[in-house]
Amino acid sequence: MISTLRQKPASLFLLLGAYFIVQVLVRLALPASLELDEGQQLYYAQWLSVGYDSQPPFYNWIQHGVVELLGPNRLSLALLKNLMLFASYGLVALAAAQVLKSRDLVIITCLSLLTMPQVSFEAQRDLTHTVALIFCTALFAFAMLRTLKAPSAWSYALTGVAIGCGFISKYNFVLLVAAALLAILAEPAFRRRLFDWRLLLTTAVAIAIVTPHALWFFQHMQEATSNTLGKMTDDDLTGMAQIVAGMKSLSTAVIASAAPTLLLLLIPFADIVASSRRTHPQASMLRSGNEWSRLIGRMMLIVIVALALMVLFGGVSAIKDRWLAPCFLLLPLYLCLKIEAAGLETPGQLRRFMAVALAIMVIVPAVLYGRVVGAGIIGHYQKQNVPYEQAIQAALASSPSRPILVLTSDQQMAGNIRLHAPDIPVTMTDNSGVAAPAKFDAQHPLLVIWRNFGKPNPPLPQSMKDWIAAYPGLTAQSFGEVALPFLHGRPHSLYSFGYAVYYSTTP
């Protein structure tokens, strides 16, 4: 395998393709119950909008197109995610090939993404917008390095595509772009690229992509930012307590993002560590570098400093490790650039790293599968163990005729209803692009499904009561509750849902 990877660059993409096909098959083999982000995606795929909620719409737009093509099913969800991750790995390889001479180090850079839990595991478990962010970061890295090395009109335009798509994938992408601009300005060899007329192409393309959502954003700023700001700040923390909490959170996020990669890369580069007692090559590696390593190193440092300033002066007290994905996606390339500049590359490094990469390629799908099908053994259930399909079918069976609309309590529930009753529109009490009919009758009833974290006797939420009350004459024709065992669970571990059928009997 090692010789094939060295001699045939396409074999790296074949290996990655096989791995992501396995990931798709694993998702299809798991129960037909959706995670949080999966449910949200199927719910929002019912309509196309320039803005949905606190997350930008890039992933929603693509998912909408895939659902229109393949239907609201697990294949639509798994295929898009794994195609986007496959493209991300490939773009990182292409970016590394721009600046690394060694093919071995290019392969190590690409497959090192497997060592990042946020990319290899969390992205598969239940992330969508972060997957889009990973893809846009990889595209931006490739386009930027290509522009700096061999500028052309298309490379400047591609950089604009990456920036525009990045802005509408996750708002924190702006930190990476700002860091890149400052890092380029600090490097004399690259500075002139910012004063090239073709930068207008980058700007024009990025603005064209961003503008539709930007107009929505400024009209819905509270809706677009409240959820994220709520996660980043804590009104109960002020002064030094907020700063301490924020710095602790930032430090933890940095360690969680970088430590697994740094530790696992000690395996392929063990020869460097082993000889350190005699020649101290690690000191040479720290001192060595070139304009490319300096650029990437400064970008990562600027992002971390910017987050620290947000803690010190912006009131931020909580930072999640996945928010650093754009920053540390370039960490393996930075390390490989330093190793190559120091002349510390050896033939055995790729062989040792392939053992690490292949092990992760086996472990990650196995854990994703085992944590669900083995949940009953340990008594700890995942969201995919919730028996949505059986509950939805029981609720549908209680209706005298096929409902014209389903009202439900949360986006995850809404997505699961779409999965198992794709012919029925699903709505919620707020932020819905699904129009409700003017009237519900016995031939066209309203089905209401809700839950209270699976607890027995779930009360109908007040927001749903208010929504129903807006239709004069609409009354409940039947109420019910279903308690079902978890999928792959213990027989006496039950999860409860409430449901009701509403329609008006008045003409």
How would you characterize the overall build of this protein?
It is a single chain. The protein has helices spanning 2-7, 10-29, 36-44, 58-70, 74-99, 103-111, 117-126, 129-149, 153-167, 173-185, 188-191, 199-219, 221-232, 239-264, 270-274, 276-279, 281-287, 291-314, 325-328, 331-341, 348-373, 375-378, 388-397, 411-420, 462-469, and strands at 405-408, 426-427, 446-450, 475-485, 494-503. The chain is of the alpha/beta class and 507 residues long. The chain has two domains: 2-30 and 73-373, no CATH class; 386-503, no CATH class. It has a five-stranded mixed β-sheet with strand order 2-1-3-5-4, with helices on one face. β4 and β5 (494-503) form a beta hairpin. 44% of the residues are buried.
Ordered list of secondary-structure elements with their pairings:
Elements: H1 2-7, H2 10-29, H3 36-44, H4 58-70, H5 74-99, H6 103-111, H7 117-126, H8 129-149, H9 153-167, H10 173-185, H11 188-191, H12 199-219, H13 221-232, H14 239-264, H15 270-274, H16 276-279, H17 281-287, H18 291-314, H19 325-328, H20 331-341, H21 348-373, H22 375-378, H23 388-397, E1 405-408, H24 411-420, E2 426-427, E3 446-450, H25 462-469, E4 475-485, E5 494-503
Parallel strand pairs: 1-2, 1-3
Antiparallel strand pairs: 3-5, 4-5
Helix pairs in contact: 2-5, 2-21, 3-24, 4-5, 5-6, 5-8, 6-20, 6-21, 8-9, 9-12, 10-18, 14-18, 18-20, 23-24
InterPro entries: LipidA_mod_glycosyltrf_83 (IPR050297), RgtA/B/C-like (IPR038731)
Domain Glycosyltransferase RgtA/B/C/D-like: 55-216
Pfam families: PMT_2 (PF13231)
